[in-house]
Specification:
This protein is mainly alpha-helical. The chain contains six helices and no strands. Helix 3 (about 70-90) runs antiparallel to helix 6 (about 160-185). The two termini are about 15 Å apart.
């Protein structure tokens, strides 16, 4: 898998952390730099670690599922993308009231936003992708997007952008899933 494809996957995966960081920034517009830094590092690190863990699982099961790798990657990316699109459409007032300053909330959000990376990491394992490069890109892009989410929330307070970012991320992941399937079938 090429760096550009990994970058696009990383951008798609980071949309939920972008939405979470923006929502956090909107709920508490006076967050201190240290709290934002901690949140951004948690979100990026968990995203990268879960992708690496998924890759390890993908490597372990590779010999069993070699014939189905492109279908697995397709189904996983479309499922994740569909979930992200669904999450962007539904309304949930509970998500607007969380406090990122609480360690348990931050840990829960870091894990919840990284489940997608675990599944994508498995797909990367099936596709024999360099996991070091992929995890570095996924972690760095997530940190950038999470930082941007906090900054935009603080600067502009745009309440509508978070859900749209998740929608765009879902569409990107579905597109990549279709591309993987077409490449392997053609």
């Amino acid at each position: 898998m090429y760096l550009a494809e990994v970058l696009i996957i990383a951008i798609g995966l980071s949309m939920d952390t972008f939405a979470v960081s923006m929502a956090s920034g909107l709920c508490k517009r006076s967050l201190k730099f240290g709290i934002v830094l901690r949140a951004v590092l948690f979100l990026g690190t968990f995203q990268a670690l879960f992708a690496a863990l998924g890759w390890l699982l993908g490597q372990y099961f590779q010999h069993i599922l070699m014939q189905l790798d492109h279908w697995i990657a397709f189904v996983l990316l479309v499922a994740i993308g569909g979930k992200m699109i669904w999450e962007s459409i539904k309304t949930d007032k509970a998500n607007e009231t969380f406090d990122i300053q609480n360690w348990f909330v931050l840990l829960g959000l870091s894990v919840a936003t990284s489940i997608d990376a675990l599944i994508v990491g498995m797909g990367l394992g099936f596709l024999s992708t360099s996991i070091l490069q992929a995890t570095l890109v996924i972690g760095a892009v997530t940190i950038i997007f999470a930082t941007a989410g906090f900054w935009i929330a603080r600067r502009f307070g745009l309440r509508f952008l978070g859900k749209r970012a998740e929608l765009i991320g879902g569409v990107v992941l579905i597109t990549i899933g279709i591309k993987v399937l077409i490449e392997h079938l053609a």
